[in-house]
Structures are given as C-alpha cells and as structure tokens.
Amino acid sequence: MRMLLLALLAICMQTVQAQTSIKGTVKDPENNLVPGASVVIGKTKVSITNDKGEYTFTDVPAGKHVLTITFIGYETTTRTVTLKEGETRVVNVALTSSAEQLQHVEITGRKESGYKNTNSFIGTKTATNLKDVPQSVSYVTKEMIQDQQAMRIGEMVKNMSGINQHTTYDDLDIRGFRTQNNSQVQMVNGLRTITGFWKQPLTNYLERLEVIKGPASALFGNTSPGGVINRVTKKPLAERRQSVSFSTGSFNAFRGLADFTGPMNESKTLLYRLNLGYENAQSFRELQFDKNFVVAPSISFLPTEKTRLNFDVVYNRSNSRLDRGQAVYGNNDIYSVPISKSLNATNDYLNEDNLMITTSFNHQLTKKLQFNLAYLKTIWEEDLLEHRTANGYAKDSAGAAIPTLVEMQVLIRKRKVFADNVSAYFTYDANTGPIAHKILAGYDYAQNKMPWGAAQSQANGYKNAAGTAATAYNAARPANFQYTTVNGIKMPVPNVPHFDLTSVSPYQLFDMSKYSYVKTNYDPTFYNAQGYYVQDQLTFGKFQALLGLRYDRFDERVNYDKATETKIVQDAFIPRVGLVYTIDKHVNVYATYTEGYNPQTTASMNNPNAGGPFDPLISNLVEAGAKSDWFNERLSVTLAAYRIQLENVLYNAGDATNPELLRPIGKVESKGIELDVKGQISPNWYLTAAYAYNDAQITESTDKTDLGRQSPGAPKHQGSFWTKYTIPNGVLKGLGIGGGANFVTERNVDGNKVQTLPAYEVFNGALYYKIDKFQLQLNMNNLLDKTYWIGGYDYLRLFPGAPRNWMTTVSYVF
To answer: What family is reported (predicted)?
Structure first.
C-alpha cells in the first residue's frame, strides 16, 4: 500500500513539474497597476487582470506564444514568449498611452465598452473628454441598455439625473422643463430630426443615448431649455463582431435583434455595420400592442488617413394602437379603475414609418485644419384611427357630469413630415504663446415641412335633434338634441358612444359609419432655422475656457403655399462661456453661463389647436460643478448645481371648449443639484447611480395662483441605482447578478393646480450566465409589483407603469 501511495505521489509531482504557465502584471505609464486589462494568447485563451493588475495562464503548451495586451486609452501591446516544458514564465507589461487621434466627426464605432463613456461630441461639436466639458452631460451606453433590456428612451432615462417621463410618449421632463412643448427638437448624431411622438420605437441601433443639460442653443440653435437628447447610432468597427439575441417575456412579448460589423476589404478602408430588430408584444394595457421592425445599416469609407466618409440609415416601421391613458372617477380616485383599462376600440390603429438618412464627411486639409460636413434627411409618416377621450365626462340632460362615463371622440388622420438638416464647420488648432486654441466656425441649416395632403376627420359632441350632425351639448337649448335614458338617467345621445369605466368588457368593434364627422384638410406648414457660430476652446496650464457665440434666425411661413402667405422672422444672438480648472489628475471643477432660445411656431405641427402666435422661449443657465475619474479612470462622477430661468413658457389654458389650448404663464425658475456615477469599481463590478433635486417654480404669471407652484411633471426628488457583478472564476464562473431601483417623488399633473400623482419607487433585478459565446439572461422588473403612475395630463389621461414583468434573453456572439 505504501509503495502505491509513493508511486501516485511521484506521478503527481511529475505532473506539477511538467506544467507550463505564464503570469505577470500590467501597469500604466505611471507605474500604477491596471485592473481589467485584457491579455490574450493566440485567439482562444483570455485572461483579465484582477484588482492587483495580475493575470495568469496555466496549462500552456510548450512552444512559442504571442501575448496581446489591450486596455482602453492605451496602445495595444504584444509580447512574444517561448516556453519550455514545465516552465513558468513571468511577463510584466508596461502600457503606453494611446496616440490615436480623436475623430472630429463620429464616423467609426466606439471602442470603449461598459457603462462609462469618456468622449463625446454633444458638448462642444468636437471630440472632447466629458471631464473637460463645462456643462453636465448624462448618458447611457449600449452595454447598460443590454444589461437592463431597456429598449425605449423612457426606460433608459431613469438612469440619468434630472430626467423623467412626462407620459409614455416620446415626452420627457429635463430639469423641470418638458421637451415636447419645444417643437420636438431632437438630435441624431448631433443633427436635428423629427420622430413620431406617440410611440417610443426600438433603439437597438443606438451606441448610446446622451443628454447635455440646460440650454444648448449656442451649439444647436433653438432647443429645449432643460436639455437636448442626442441619439448616437452604432458605427462600423474595423474588427469583425457579430451577435444575435432572442427575447421573450411577459405580455406575450417576443423580440429578435442582430448586430453585424467588420471590414469589407483587406485594407480595412471600407467598413460596415448592420443592426436588425423585430418586436411583437402585447401590453398590460388592454387592446394595446406594438409591432416594430428596424433596419439600420451603416457604411464607413476611409480612403486615406485624411478623409473619412460615413453613410447611416435608420428605418423603423411601427404598427400599434395609440394609448391615450387611463381615466378614473370617484372624486379623482386614481385607484378606482384598473391600470389595465384603456379607452380604445378594437378597430383602432396607429401605423408609423420613420426614415433617417445621414451622410457625414471629414477631411483634414492641413495638419491643423479640418473640414466637417453632415446632412440628415428625415421622413415621418402617420396613419391613425383612434377612439379616445374627449377630455371630459359624459353629461346628463341638465349638463351635469356623470363621472363613470367618459365622453369619447374619434380621430382619423394621415400626414407626412419632411425634415432636413445640414451642418458644416471648420476646426483649427492654433497656439498663441502658452495658450492652445481649438477654434470652430460653422453654419447650420434646418427645415421642416408638411406638404399638402395632410387631413383629419373628427367625430365628437352630441347628436342634434334631426340626427344629421353633432355639436357640443348646450343644456339651455334642450330642443336642439336627441335624448336617451340609461340606468334611469336622461342624457343627450352622444355622437360617439360613451366609455363606461365600470364595465367589465367595454371594448367593441364600432360601426363608424354612424358617426357624424367634421373633415379638416391641414394647411401645409414650413419653417426653417439657420445659424452662424464661432467657438474657441482654450487651454492654458490647468485652465480651460470655452467661448462661443451664435447668431440664429428662424423663419416661419404662415399660410404657406397660399396667396396670403406671410413670413414671421425671429432671430437672436446666443452667447456661451465656460471655465474648467484641473485640480489634479482625478478632479476637474467647472462653471458655465449660456443662453437659450426657442421659437414657438404659430401652428404647431403636432397640435394645431394650441393657439398662438406666441413669443419665443428665452432662457439662461448658470451652472457649476465637479467631474472626476476614479479606479484607473473606470468610474466617473459628475456633481452639478444649476439655475435655469425661462420666459414665455406655455401651459394648458384649461378651456373646456378647446382642451388643447395653451397659455403663456410668464417665467419659471428651475434650481437644483444633480449627481451621476457611472463605470466600474473592479473589472467585474459595474455601477451606475443618479440623484437629482429640482425646485422648478413658477415665479411670474398673469394668474397669481400659479406663483410658487412646482412645474407640471417635475418631481422635486428623483434618483436611481443599478449594479451588476459577474463571478470571474471558480465553479460559478460566468454567473452574474444585477439589481437596482429608481424613485420619483410627487408630481403635479400637467397644468392642473389640484391633481397630483403619488411618489413611487420600483425595484428591478437580473441574472446572467455566460458560457463561452452564449449568454442567458433573465430580467425581472417591478419586483414588488408596485402600482404607480409615470405621468399624465389630467385624471382622464393618466399613464400607469407596468406591473411585475419579466424578460428572458438568449444571445450569441460569433
């Protein structure tokens, strides 16, 4: 027995002695250890450095091997190692900072991965480290989008400070100001576009979503005073990457996504990317559904080091129903009606087509001079049929409200909108003594046009005595209307049947031929904006300054394409001043002042009943804060304090005869503090957190009861937290867990002075398991099954959040 044990021991010792391995550390140019660096042998063996910057390979065959070491912000480094049988080799690596020049136009894809994004164009129109931008910028990367399965803008913004949904539409509040009321100015790759307002489409084609907080008119012209949302599309990469994923979950949801990218030729001068998406899902809201199809190809041509060209397309086809929200009764009891109950009919539909085509060009004229040109064409088409609330309760014969019955109306609408944006500018690098300059000068032109052909048919009101037409009910003229008796209550006969909030199954396929309609052909609309601007980014030692000035001109054609056509012209000079001071390599502090300007069109494309003309929105921002990077620049922290003043803001007028009429209220002042944290604490531990305090009060109004009231839809406190950790080794290697929560405090409902929505907090979680190139993922949202409301216009149009729901995803990378 002893001899057998000795023999086994000898065999084990020989095995240990015969084992070959490679280990070592990775450090940066300042001799700091680098956790999270990728060390690769050949194409299959990969090791990620731990918190001490260490990596290890065991069971490496004897022979010659090439180690490739990569980490964001540093040059790719290689080491060649020849191993003998049984040898353990120590290979320590010192990285060198990357000499790669930042792009002046975002033409090739972002190489950075994870929750942190270092550089952006949104703050200065040049590739600038966000730490050096003297204004707060929030963002969500594609990696966070994937981890949370957040495929809508509204689902993403909960991860940003100071931004929340006003409704479930493409309708947000930023720092207390609603974006929808500002001509729906949106940005795609830094260019102005228009998208459908009613539905938030799939966003699997996005590299990241980013928001520059406060007025950004000095950069982009007329924009929202609260901030500008920019959607950055995925661009081609010079390396081959392919992935597909399939998801299924609550409410009969199915989703399939694909992302392919790589070079199209051996010289890698022609790159491509193709994103595909398909979704077919029901909803917790009755009769609601979404069918979406997304095709988003992108091609980059890099013929020389001096010339770059990108062609980018996003096409989204959406079939759904328009959800106008939940109506309640019982003295405004928001719990009186199930959150699942919508006010639709089974023959309703909303079909939308959205096409965005972008071409961008960058050419280096000299070593210091660059020229940039970009063009975006947008085409949006709407085909709508909806049964919706008429924004009031049904009336009895005396004109008193019947609070369990909702007045209804029908809208049938078709329209198409075209938008164009051209942006051309030069950048020049210069020095005046010890001061370095990056000078930018450019011109923007944007136009928006709705041609002839847009039309709407509307049915509402109550049947006249002859039954040939319908009008608003007038109890003082009872002989002018037909009557019926329901549950012992005498009431006028509605043109469109009332919706009974107490009915268990109120949904029908209505005979719409019995309704009386008023048909309206929309007049064409046209407006354009053009701007001339200059900017200088100065660097002097630890100080950086940003100086900008823009002249903007806004032209609107009233009675466009008619003999009575007239032009309204508004213009403004818009300054911007910012200062950044570097305290040390971790921390920058900044301060900024900028003004904002946003004309309010006479006939809004999305709401022709709003009234007008209105004076332009005039705003200004004072902001100061600090930005820092920690854990070897893997984790970023931004702290900002601000004050925004806005004049001529519009609120609902509360006119019973025209519920969509707006009124100017004077001035709103928004003050607050924001905190954003994003990145990694360790190579396998990701984190994002946000908090905002926002005091947005009406300070001037013709109605004195408005004074001191919090701006509609804006919570005073709002925040979120999300973290993900993946086990790096052992029997549970590849298993990850994620979790977080978001909260919003009480909000006023639109322009109403007494209707409010309660505060809420929602907890979410996720599990991940990665096996080689496969990943299995389970997301659970609203774990505690909280009943809550995202936002709303009034107690007839509330937008509840989803109850507890889940989504499973299988993805494969190859």
So the answer is: Belongs to the TonB-dependent receptor family.
The pLDDT, as a whole number, for residue 632 is 84
Structure tokens at 345: 């009919």
Distance, CA of 773 to CA of 640 (rounded, Å): 41
- Coil/strand/helix, residue 153: helix
Tokens of 364: 């280096």
632-644 pLDDT, tens per residue? Answer: 889 999 999 999 9
Single pTM value for the model: 0.86
Q: Which residues contact 378 (CB under 8 A, 6 or more apart)?
A: 193, 194, 195, 354, 355, 356, 357, 417, 418, 419, 420, 421
**Confidence tier at 100 by pLDDT (50, 70, 90):** very low
What confidence tens digit (pLDDT) does each residue in 738-752 have? 999 999 999 998 756
Q: What is the pLDDT of residue 73?
A: 57
Q: 14 pLDDT exceeds 60?
A: no
Domain(s) of CATH 2.60.40.10: residues in the chain? 16-94
Residue range(s) occupied by CATH 2.170.130.10 in the chain = 119-231
Rounded distance between C-alpha atoms, residue 295 and residue 546, angstroms: 39
547 SS3 class: strand
Res 430: pLDDT = 93
* Gap between the Cα atoms of 689 and 159, Å rounded: 7
DSSP for 467-508, written as a single string: SS-EE---TT-GGGB-EEEETTEEEEPBSSPPEETT-S----
**546 beta partners:** 537, 578
Are the C-beta atoms of residues 404 and 501 closer than 8 Å to each other? yes
The yes-or-no verdict on residue 6 having pLDDT over 60 is no
Q: Report how far residue 63's alpha carbon sits from residue 288's, in angstroms, rounded to the nearest whole number.
A: 63
Token pair recorded at residue 249? 């979950």
Provide CATH 2.40.170.20 ranges for the chain: 232-458+519-813
Of 315, 345, 624, 304, the closest CA to residue 459 belongs to 345
> CA 332 to CA 342: how far, in whole Å?
17
In this prediction, residue 275 has a pLDDT band, given cuts at 50, 70 and 90, of: very high
Write out the two tokens for 664: 């100017």
The sign of the dihedral angle between the CA atoms of 501, 502, 503, 504 is positive
Closest CA to 676 of 46, 301, 135, 308: 135
For residue 743, which of 765, 728, 758, 723 has the smallest C-alpha distance?
Answer: 758
The CATH H-level (homologous superfamily) assignment of domain 232-458+519-813 is TonB-dependent receptor, beta-barrel domain (2.40.170.20)
C-alpha to C-alpha distance for 374 and 399, rounded to whole angstroms:
58
- Element holding 769 (H helix, E strand): strand 760-771
- The topology (CATH level 3) of 16-94 is Immunoglobulin-like (2.60.40)
CA end-to-end distance (rounded Å), the chain = 52
The two tokens of residue 578 are: 């910012």
C-alpha to C-alpha distance for 163 and 744, rounded to whole angstroms: 10
Q: CATH number for 119-231: choose from 2.170.130.10, 1.10.10.200, 3.90.550.10, 3.40.50.150.
A: 2.170.130.10
pLDDT for 94 equals 87
Q: Is the pLDDT of residue 16 over 70?
A: no
pLDDT-derived band at 593 (thresholds 50, 70, 90) equals: very high
Report how far residue 455's alpha carbon sits from residue 53's, in angstroms, rounded to the nearest whole number.
65
Q: Are 390 and 409 in contact (CB under 8 A)?
A: yes
Angstrom distance (rounded) from CA 571 to CA 746: 38
Mean of the per-residue pLDDT values of the chain: 89
- Name the phi and psi angles at 613, rounded to 5: -75, 160
* Neighbour tally for 73: CB within 10 Å: 15
pLDDT for 662 equals 78
Residues 430-473 pLDDT 10s: 999 899 999 999 999 999 999 999 999 999 999 999 989 999 99
Q: Is the pLDDT of residue 239 over 50?
A: yes
